[in-house]
Amino acid sequence: MRKPILSLMILFCLCAMADNHIRRIDLSGTWLFALDREATIGPSDSLTETIQLPGTTDTNKKGYPIVKKDESTHLSRLYTYQGRAWYKRIIEIPDNWRGLPIHLFLERTKPSEVYIDSKFIGSSNDISTPQVFDLSAVLTPGKHELTIMIDNGSGVPQQLYASSHAYTEDTQTNWNGIIGKIEMRTDSLEHNTTPEVHPNFRNFHIEKQHFYANGHKIFLRGKHDACVWPLTGHVAMDVESWHDYLSTCAAYGLNHIRFHSWCPPEAAFVAADDLGIILQPELPFWGDFNASDTILMQFLHKEGENILRTYGHHPSFRMFALGNELWGSIDKMAEFVNDFRKIAPDKLYTFGSNYYLGYQGVKAGMDYFTTCRVGGEGWGNYNTHTRGSFSFADADDGGIINHFYPNTQMNFEEGCARAFPENSSQVFAIPVISHETAQFQTYPCYDEIKKYTGVLYPYNMEIFRSKLEKAGMLDQADDFHKASGLWSLQLYKQDIEMDLRTKNMAGFQLLDLQDYPGQGSAYVGILDAFMDSKGLCTEREWRQWCAPVVPLFITDRFCFTTENGIHARIQVANYSGESLDGKTLHWELTGPGITESGEMKLFSTEGLFDVGKLDINLYHLNIPTQLQLLLCIDDTEYYGVPYHNTYNLWVYPDNNNLKKLQRKVIVTDVLTAQIARQLEKGKNVLLMPGTSDLTIGGLFQTDYWNYRMFKTISENNKKMVSPGTLGILTDPLHPLFKSFPTEMHTNWQWFPVIKNSHPMILANTSKIYRPIVQVIDNIERNHKLGLVFEFQVGKGKLLICMADLNKASAYPEGRAFYSSLLEYMTSRDFAPKTHITLDDFLRLITTPVVEGKIGELNNISPY
């Protein structure tokens, strides 16, 4: 119980409070202040400015106002400052504190020096935990001058400034100030690293390749957290903000957060304890774990000890990693883990999230392995992978999802089965968590700009918007955002379900549910940087495939034929800790001309298990049709609705009139002089040109993470550069699609066409010209790209398709697209609105386009 302490007078109306053991003086409020970039101020000097604490120089508009507004790799600080800053105020110690231990408590800050009455007391460079200074020997009842110097320009190993999310300008920013609680306390400095008992985390442990809690197998559905707080530029320190943040994560089905190269404050652990979310903090490091760098090793070891001793009692703190994508001394990593295990033996440890980019495999001392691959592989092999997407610098063709014919049976069992500790007698492989899963880009929503009312401003977004406007496509920005986002949503579903289909996988850590506004500006989230919806899906829709129980449709394709029908298996991934024995899985297939349904009985099994086979005849469907399959487990409830999942499927008649249609138009890959004359005289021509300097490659998925960074890395490593596109944009009501059902965006039925495509740069067309099927370019390049487009040339009509439809026709959906396109060309609907001369068309497809320079952007991890 708390009660006021009487007879306490403190300057500035400070409030003193006490509980059963600890008395506190709150030091928040107005402080005297001075910047000291040249290090010329001392503790006895007078300070003339004022500042509000808790806060930072940014939140108080101290420092240097922004001048250059051309930063496109991350958000911009409106006021920047790096160096020493002085903070000073008068404190008054009450008489009844005489003889008590007195400590200064700074909940979170940067390297500091503390002075009482101009006398040096001590310094600290604890950045992951509170800084606590023992003032018992120098404080007596009465008034004293407290002076604190904070330095955000030195005091920690240099490697942290560009890498750790405790410092980097890409997200949190390198602020100067003191945030959270600022107090004088009469407490001891004891730490408890033993977790408190909590029903959500009881008996958290590992059995074989899975995590268990409360006696049940669980699956970690996690996200990466990079300390993105756009309004303050620093981490929130209050429980309410963290409760809101983590509640949003939980509403999207997540039960786990990985903190990339930083450790959250007390408030995060308190909120996670309440919500039952498992946290994995990390040492504040991303780089070379260099055993010979004594300063770095001592600093990181100290930070690890502090984190474990300060937050180890929280039941949500179950896992700990040594940093992000480390390389360097594996022996030193093992030594750190052994030391930390002595301090907090209840925690589960790994050397680092995706250490050595997974190539070194599992080592003795790891409890679990967070990675994108397990060991090395030959280029072009995918059997070590533990996620579905990669950059073109990391994996041939950008990984499994972009490379292989779409299906719902691919998984990572082979990679996870390799997770045995090297040179160990251990019988079982250890748990594998998919590292930074997904990373599918979405074109940004420029309406978000107005939300930046705090210390950071998105000049990067303004730059990208200006580039789009210059290219004449600003009116399409919202459609680009929607089309790329809805396609990325399907890609996220696929990547997550690949993890759930893997019986020996233990979890995933998404990158990300939330946009990452730095490192080149990576708009990979389903939510924006503020954790607000982008309007791409509801929480309920997302939870179809991200929940404790997920029904799964297992088959080798999304596109079927009327002759063969649908042949699939149904599985359920059950990590709810609850029995499904005796419950019923209801399935329903619906679409134009079809409604089929059925039931399957479930039995009590945890983890991934088979339910039954699904065989459906489709012979009565005589036109191309899009269907939806619903799987629903009756008599269950999660956020008020039963566990369910849906799939878009397509069916095509086996016989179409493709050959007949081909004879009605001129089909060519080269516009010869003879064909050009026929075109001008009134013939309909389908032109499927080859590649040229005006074409780019065909990318099925949306580009991975950030085009600028991985373009740099690929070029430096002599690897193929990703085409860098973000899916298609089209009008599903266009008559070209009468026999090829589609949405406005890419979906699985487009794979044969897009993988055999090479979109053309249409910069030589007028700014108002729009292709029928447009390919969305990335934010750096902003090309107008055409996959299918048309012109009236003389008396004839010309349709250009930048895909090899003969190769695409190896698949039923490819044949359907080809037929639908030809049906359009032989109908009255084929009436191009844009008239062009033959000479102008030839210039359009041959005149070089001058591209703007895209700057280099390197990653910290070595490639």
TrEMBL record:
<feature type="domain" description="Glycosyl hydrolases family 2 sugar binding">
    <location>
        <begin position="27"/>
        <end position="156"/>
    </location>
</feature>
<dbReference type="InterPro" id="IPR051913">
    <property type="entry name" value="GH2_Domain-Containing"/>
</dbReference>
<keyword id="KW-0378">Hydrolase</keyword>
<dbReference type="InterPro" id="IPR008979">
    <property type="entry name" value="Galactose-bd-like_sf"/>
</dbReference>
<dbReference type="GO" id="GO:0004553">
    <property type="term" value="F:hydrolase activity, hydrolyzing O-glycosyl compounds"/>
</dbReference>
<dbReference type="GO" id="GO:0005975">
    <property type="term" value="P:carbohydrate metabolic process"/>
</dbReference>
<feature type="signal peptide">
    <location>
        <begin position="1"/>
        <end position="18"/>
    </location>
</feature>
<dbReference type="InterPro" id="IPR017853">
    <property type="entry name" value="GH"/>
</dbReference>
<protein>
    <submittedName>
        <fullName>Glycosyl hydrolases family 2, sugar binding domain</fullName>
    </submittedName>
</protein>
<dbReference type="InterPro" id="IPR006104">
    <property type="entry name" value="Glyco_hydro_2_N"/>
</dbReference>
<comment type="similarity">
    <text>Belongs to the glycosyl hydrolase 2 family.</text>
</comment>
<dbReference type="Pfam" id="PF02837">
    <property type="entry name" value="Glyco_hydro_2_N"/>
</dbReference>
<keyword id="KW-0732">Signal</keyword>
